Amino acid sequence: QVQLVESGGGLVQAGGSLRLSCAASGRTFSSYYLGWFRQAPGKEREFVAAISWSGGSTYYADSVKGRFTISRDNAKNLVSLQMNSLKPEDTAVYYCAADTGPWAVVTGTSNYWGQGTQVTVSS
After folding, report:
1. Residue-by-residue pLDDT tens, the chain, 123 positions
2. Are 99 and 31 a contacting pair, CB within 8 Å?
């Protein structure tokens, strides 16, 4: 099992940057595929990015590709999302997700989720 806690959200002007972090507790962090999702007001939760067990492979939604970077540090039990060139459309609650394989993570059916952190981008 793994427990996830997001942090780093806040209010930023369009074009600015934020770095989100997801701290995990558990003895087998490196065994989990990790992802970031977001949910804007009135919308369904959507996939943002995912990263493989050792960080060798990353995947991004088209809407954030080239602007966001996902990374992980298994020694620190940490997965991060660097968000650059933020747009008002990026405003959402961002969630960290984990599961033992990629399918559950990229489809939003992960067994483990964080509580979310609010990101607000003003125009």
Report:
1. 889 999 999 999 999 999 999 999 977 899 999 999 999 999 999 999 999 999 999 999 999 999 999 999 999 999 999 999 999 999 999 999 999 999 999 999 999 999 999 999 999
2. no
Q: H or E element: which one contains 39?
A: strand 33-39
Q: Which residues are CB-contacts of 75 (< 8 A; sequence separation ≥ 6)?
A: none
pLDDT confidence of residue 50: 97
Is residue 31 exposed (0-12), middle (13-18) or buried (19+ Cβ within 10 Å)?
middle
The span from the CA of 19 to the CA of 57, in Å, is 20
Name residue 79's beta-bridge partners. 22, 72
CA pair distance 93, 36, nearest whole angstrom? 10
Report which residue type is found at 5: V
Residues in contact with 12: Cβ distance below 8 Å, sequence separation at least 6, in sequence order: 18, 86, 119, 120, 121, 122
